[in-house]
Amino acid sequence: MDNMPNKYYWTREEEAKLLELWKKGITDLNVLAKELGRKPLAVERKLQRMAVVVSKQKFQKTTTTEIKSKDLLTHEEALKLLAGAIESLQQPGQDKLELQRLRILVDAVQTYDSVLEKFERWVEIESRLLAMDEKIAELKKAKGNKS
User: Fold this and answer.
1) Dihedral, CA atoms, 135, 141, 144, 145, nearest 10 degrees?
2) DSSP letter string over the chain?
3) How many CB atoms lie within 10 A of CB 138?
4) Distance CA 54, CA 27 (A)
5) Burial class of residue 107 in the structure, from the number of CB atoms within 10 Å of its CB (0-12 exposed, 13-18 middle, 19+ buried)
6) pLDDT in tens, 1-42
7) In the chain, N or C terminus with fewer CB closer than 10 Å?
């Protein structure tokens, strides 16, 4: 590994290949590094920058249910923020910076509410899939006991 060239920049092709290998389930940093002609630490850092969670001990697939609902704003709370920002925008005498801040807040809240709705649908789908997996396991177990 020490005779590898000291590459600094990642090409789009290299990033695509890294992501493709990762999605195929190749998570060993040494294997990825060899495939890409990079050092394992460089691959790990690139994965982190690409927002792929890297754990040296054990690679686990994450689920949407790991996000705690108490950490999220509800739709109602988001709408209250939006209403407050719109109300502030209507008041005269706002300086340019405050108007920009409020417009950014309005955009952010609208985006957040849309993403929250999608997240809630994914959580529901994931819950259904987990329940189906449990039922399948029960059926396999029951079928195995009958044999």
Assistant:
1) -120
2) -TTS----SPPHHHHHHHHHHHHTT---HHHHHHHHTS-HHHHHHHHHHTT----SS------GGGS-GGGSPPHHHHHHHHHHHHHHHHSTT--HHHHHHHHHHHHHHHHHHHHHHHHHHHHHHHHHHHHHHHHHHHHHHHHHHH-
3) 10
4) 8
5) exposed
6) 445 555 678 888 888 898 888 888 888 889 999 999 999 988
7) C
